[in-house]
Amino acid sequence: MSNKPDAFLRCEGCKKVLFSKEFVKNLRVCPNCGHHYRLSADERIEITFDEGSFVELDADMKSEDPLQFPEYAEKLARGFASTGRNDSVVRGMAKLGGFPVSAAVADFRFMGGSMGSVAGEKITRTLETAIDERIPAVIFTATGGARMQEGLLSLMQMAKTSAACRKAYDAGVPYICVFTDPTMAGVLASYASLADVILAEPKALVGFAGARVAAQSSGGQKLPDNFQTSEFAYEHGMIDAVVQRKDVRATL
């Protein structure tokens, strides 16, 4: 059986057939409808930062399953198999247009990009490094929220990362966050929304509760068609700009 990738694929958005090579060349964005597919952390790093400039830090950090939560160890193992890394956030030093930055990128393939104690620590260190080095912090989100398997240890990362955001603000260090699909729940309610500048890719899912819960809490009112999208968040002042993937690097 051949492992050769298919020459064609069908767009999840418009259902049109695409040439795989052209699709990849277009940064995994459908040229017909503009549907932005999710990227791995490595793909995001490759298209964003100066070639060969990214140096990963804290790659050996991993969760110890502090609560002995059922099947958590197996899910961590699957996350490692999917990404080759120990957790959902990759952090390091990089250059962007020749300027040094402290960077972190979430990978949705690792347990839905969820934030546990390791992810929270990496985000905090990303901001602390920016403060120490007097350079900007650039963080990409892709997450369903806090990691329930770590209970309160996960929820405390909201407070810890928020405190780091405040330290960066007080130090006058720029912090830029880029929302990608999805950016939800505990991450949205903490460090993601506290950036000095917030960008988002088109039609990214952005919200706190899931669509079903949001609909129930609306009291039966019909929600807008674009509810919980980056465009809706932009219209209501939560996001500074919705930026096409091909323009994110230049905008940053």
Main sheet makeup: 8 strands, mixed
Shape: globular
With helices defined by DSSP (H or I, 4 residues minimum), what is the helix count?
A: 9
Gap between N and C termini: 43 Å
Q: Unreliable runs, pLDDT <50, ≥5 residues?
A: none
Radius of gyration from CA coordinates:
18 Å
Taken as a percent bin, the fraction of beta residues is 15-25%
Number of DSSP-assigned strands? 10
Q: How are helices and strands ordered from N to C?
A: EEHHEHEEHEHEHEEHHEH
Percent of residues in helices comes to 25-40%
Structural category is alpha/beta
What average pLDDT do the residues reach? 88
What does it look like?
The mean pLDDT is 88. The chain is an alpha/beta fold. The longest helix is centred in the middle third of the chain and has 21 residues, at 151-171. The protein starts with 7 loop residues before the first strand and ends with a helix. Helix 4 (117-133) packs parallel to helix 5 (151-171). The chain is globular and about 45 Å long. The protein has helices at 20-25, 41-48, 72-83, 117-133, 151-171, 185-188, 211-217, 230-235, 245-251; strands spanning 8-10, 17-19, 55-57, 89-96, 99-106, 137-143, 175-184, 197-200, 206-207, 241-242. Strands 3, 4, 5, 6, 7, 8, 9 and 10 form an 8-stranded mixed sheet that branches.
